Amino acid sequence: MPRRLLARVRDVMAGDAGAEERLNQVVSIIAAEMSAEVCSIYVRRAGEVLELFATQGLKQSAVHNTRLRVGEGLVGEIAARAKPSSLTDAQSHPNFAYRPETGEEIYHSLMGVPLLRSGRVNGVVVVQNRSPREYEEEEVEALQTVAMVLAEVVAGGDLLSREEQLPADGNALLPLRLEGVQFNAGIGIGTAVLHQPRYVVENLVAEDLDAEHARLREAVSEMHGALDTLLQASDIATGGDHTEILETYRMIAEDAGWLARIGEAIASGLTAEAAVQKVLNDIQARMSQVTDPYLRERIHDFEDLADRLLQHLVGSGSDSELQKLPDDVVLVARSMGPAQLLDYDRRCLKGLVLEEGSSTSHVAIVARALDIPVVGCVQGVAGMIEEGEPVIVDGDNAQVFIRPGEEMRRIFFRSAKALGQRKAGYASLRELRAVTRDGERISIQINAGLLIDLEHLKDMGAAGVGLYRTEVPFMVRSQFPDVETQQKIYARVIEQAAGKPVAFRTLDVGGDKVLPYWRDAGEENPAMGWRAIRIGLDRPSLLRQQLRALIRAAAGGPLCVMFPMIAEVSEFIAARKLLDMELEREVKRGGPLPGELSVGAMMEVPALLFQLPALLRRVDFISIGSNDLLQFLFASDRGNARTAGRYDPLSPAVLRIFRDVLVQCRQADVPVSVCGEMAGNPLDAMALIGMGYRSISLSPPSMGQVKTMIRSLEIGPLETYMENLYQSDHRNLRENLRAFARDHGVKI
Ligand code: PEP
Ligand code: MG
Q: What separation in Å is there between the alpha carbon of 448 and the centre of ligand 1?
C-alpha cells in the first residue's frame, strides 16, 4: 500500500493542477488507498487556527468553514503536539470537539499526522473510519510521508499568502525593533540572509531500492569527507571548547543509529533524500516537546547534518548560491548547528540572529570564537524578515532592528566605528602597565570559563586568571566529565595561561548554572539552595575527583584553588581536608605535588563577613564575589530585571563592608581581590581602588576601559575624598564618585 500511495501522490505533484485542486486529489487518493471513509486536510492560518481546506467524506460545505484553534479538538491537539495520533474510538476521547457542519458524527476511528516543515506544523491530515479500527504502524508512517509533501504544498504560497504565514502583528513592512538575549556583544550592520534548508525533496518514491541504498552510502561518505575538510579549513583557533563541539558534531555525523534509520526508511520504499527528510521529521517531532537545552541542541545538529546530507543527495549549485551572498551578511535563523555557521564566508558575516538557543549553545560558542555579534531568543524573527532587507544586530543591548531607517543606520554606523576605534585603542594599551598616575600598580586579571576567553590574557596583557569558572566547561558538555577529561581541560587552561597564575574555582553549579545532564532538583530558591560547595561537601567524591584532576593538571607546577559560596569557616576546613586527602593520594601514586599551592575562599555569603578572623587564619587568599555577595546583602535577586539597579553597590553599606574586609585582610596579611562584575565597571573599580584594593578580576571586554581609568587616576586625593563617604547617610554615592572622577580627569 505505501508504495502505491506514494506513487499516486507523486503523479499528482507532477501534474499541473493548482494547489487547492492538488489537495482535493490527494485526499481522495489517501481515502482510497487507506480504505478510509474520510480524509481531510486542515491548514494552519494566521491566529493559530486550523481551517478545513479539503476533504473526502465530510460535507463539502464545511470546507473553509470548519475551523479549530491549535490545541482544540483532536486535530488541534495533533497540531499542538506536533505528533501523530490514532484512536479507535475518537468520540469518547475527552478532547473530541464535535463540529455538526461536517457530518462527522458517524465516524468512530481517527488517525492524523501533522504537516511538518522545518520543525513547524503548518497543517494536519486526518483519516476517519466508520467502524472501530486499529491503524497499523505502517499506515501511520505512510501518512507521515505524504504529509511531508503536503507541508510543501502549504508552504508554497498558493493556498495562503506569505503575509498570512507571518506572525500576524499587522506591521510586516514597518521598521521593527525586537528584543532577545545577548549571546555575543558587538554591533553588526548588514543585509538579511535567511538561513534555511536549501533543499526541497521532490522525488519521494524509490524506483530501485538497491540504487537508493547505494546513493545513501555514497552521499554519507562524501559528506564525511567534506566535513573533515570544512572543519580543518575553518580558521578558528583550535584547542578551544568550540573545537570539541565540532568534533562531537563530527561524531554525530557517524552515528550508526541515525544512518540505520535512514536505511530503514529507504527499505520502506522512499528515495534516499525522502528517507533523510523523513527521519529528520521524526526526530523533530519527537524532540519538539523537549525543553532540556542540551537535547534541544542535538536537534540543531541533526537538522544541520540532514541538510548537509541532502546537499550531497540532491544538491547542486549550493556553492554558487553561497557565492551570491552580499558582503555584509546578517544571518537570520530559527536555529543553527555549529558547522552550518562555518559554511558562510567568515569575512562576510556581520551578525547572527537566532530564534532559539542559549548563550552556551554550540553555534553561539563558535560565533564568539569568530567574534560575530549574536542576539538569540528573538521570537519569530525568521518569519518577520525578508531576504535582502537591512538589519542591525545590537549585541550589546540584545536587540535587533529590522528595516531600520536611514537615521538609525547612521547612528549605528557611528557607534560601530567608535567601538572599532575604541577596541583598537585598547589593544594599544596591551603593553602598558596598569599603574596609576601616582605610581601604584594594580593587578588586573580576567574572569574566564571557556578556553577562548584565555586568548584575552595575551590581548590585553592581563596578570592572570583571577576566576576560572570550572562549571562552564561542564555546562557545554553532554555528560559529567571524568577525572581524565577534567585533567585535560585544566591542563589546557594552564598551558594557555602560559605561566600566568590561574585561580581555579571548584564547581559552582546550581542557581542559574544548570548542567544539562543533571536533574533539576526543583528547588524554589536555587540561588540559596543546594549549590556550589554545599554539593561538593555532600558529594565528596565529586569534589575529590575535581581536586584530583586539578592536582594532576598542575603537574608539579603552581596550583591555585578557591572554594565558592563558603558560608561557615567549617565548610572551608572540610573542603581543604578533601584537598589534603587528594594530595596524599597523589603522593602514594608517585605523582608530583603542586610546586606552590594556594587555597582560598570566595567571600560571597554575608555570614562569612562575621567570621573573618577565624577564616583569615586558614586561607591563603580571599576573593570577593560581589555578584552573589550583593544579591544576598540586599536580598535582591541578581538575575531579576525588576530589582536590577534598585540597590547600588556604591552605597555606604557596601563601601563600609568592603573597606572593613580590606582592613582585616591587610592586618592578617592575606591577599584579597574582587572578582564580581563590579570590578569590571570603571567607576566601581575606581571606588575599589580608593578603598585600598589593588587586585581585581574582570570579564575580558571590560579590560580596556578599566585599564584606561587606572592610568588616569591619582589615588591619594581619591582616598582622602572617600574617607568622608564611609559615614555618609546618602543611599547612593555613585554621583559623588562620578563628580570626583570628572573633577580629577579620571577617564571612566
Ligand atoms: C560572584 O558571585 O561574584 C562570582 C564571581 O561568582 P559567579 O558570578 O560565578 O556566581
Ligand atoms: Mg558567585
A: 11
SS3 at position 739: helix
Question: For residue 625, how far is its CA from the centre of ligand 2 (angstroms)?
Answer: 5
Answer whether 471 contacts ligand 1 (Cβ < 6 A).
no
Which helix (H) or strand (E) element contains residue 529?
none
- Whether residues 135 and 46 fall in one domain: yes
Count Cα atoms within 13 angstroms, Cβ side, for 114.
Answer: 26
Q: Mapping DSSP to helix (H, G, I), strand (E, B) and coil, where does residue 288 land?
A: coil
Whether residue 720 is contained in a domain is answered as: yes
Residue 69 neighbours by CB under 8 Å, 6+ apart: 48, 49, 50, 76
Mean pLDDT per 10-residue section of the chain, whose length is 748 residues:
83 89 96 95 87 95 92 87 86 82 87 82 93 90 90 84 54 68 89 76 83 93 83 61 70 78 89 89 71 66 82 64 77 82 86 83 76 89 82 89 81 80 78 93 90 75 92 72 94 94 92 64 83 94 97 98 98 98 97 97 98 98 95 86 81 96 98 93 97 93 89 97 92 95 95
Q: 80 lies in which domain range?
A: 2-165
User: For residue 122, what is the domain's CATH number?
Assistant: 3.30.450.40
| Same domain, residue pair 72 and 41 | yes
| 674 sits in which H/E element | strand 672-674
Nearest ligand 1 atom to alpha carbon 623? 5
Identify the burial level of 447 via C-beta atoms within 10 angstroms of its C-beta, where 0-12 means exposed, 13-18 middle and 19 or more buried.
buried
pTM: 0.60
624 DSSP β-pair partners: 603, 674
Domain boundary among 398, 420, 442: 420
For 547, the grid coordinates are: 581536586
A 10 A CB-CB count for 568 gives 15
- Whether 568 is covered by a domain: the verdict is yes
Are 649 and 719 within one domain?
A: yes
Residues 295 and 348 in one domain: no
Positions marked catalytic: 362, 675
Q: Name the helix (H) or strand (E) containing 61.
A: none
Distances 180 to 3, 133, 375, 380 between C-alpha atoms, Å: 46, 48, 6, 11
- The number of domains in the chain is 4
Q: How far is CA 572 from the centre of its chain?
A: 34
Which one-letter DSSP state was computed for residue 254?
T
627 lines ligand 1 (CB under 6 A): yes
The residues, ordered by sequence, that sit 6+ positions from 507 with a Cβ below 8 Å of its Cβ are 470, 471, 474, 532, 535, 536, 542, 543, 546
- Measured at the alpha carbon of residue 255, what is the angle toward residues 249 and 256, in degrees to the nearest 5? 170
- Between the CA of 734 and the centroid of ligand 1 the distance, in Å, is 22
Amino acid at 525: N
CATH of the domain at 274: 1.10.274.10
